Amino acid sequence: GRGRKRAYHLDRPPSETDAPLEPNHTHFVFVESPPTADAQSDDVWTSHYEYYEQLKICAESRFGCPRVMLVLRGGPLSMRHVRSSLAAGAVLVIAAFSGGLASAIYEYVQTGETPAGWGAQAADFEYLRSVNAQEAAQRVEQEQQDGVEADAGER
Fold it and tell me: Has this prediction a pTM greater than 0.90?
């Protein structure tokens, strides 16, 4: 294989050749790095991202793992990944004051206006707003249904 080799143990401290496993966890997934594009290419990040997206889809479908995407800084390319993650049912966690896209999303949610410098992504921000509004409406509907069922059960 490629890269550095590691031995995984429960009873050894980390070193150049050993990596500890968390003893309170019951399952571990070991993943070999994906094939990479030329190190000078923009495709390196994209190939890694797409590889791990497929891994998350597999984990969710086979093991019922929830999907969460942490948005920390990020640029215009990150918006594509945010949209695809949302479309796949992921929950977004936005590090609002980290800068970049994360801060722009936060600003848009607060003001309803596309942040300065992000005009090319105006449609993407509107998409995020519509997905958020749709999710909120579904939650309200579910809460109302749950309330009706609870009231019927008390009678």
Answer: no
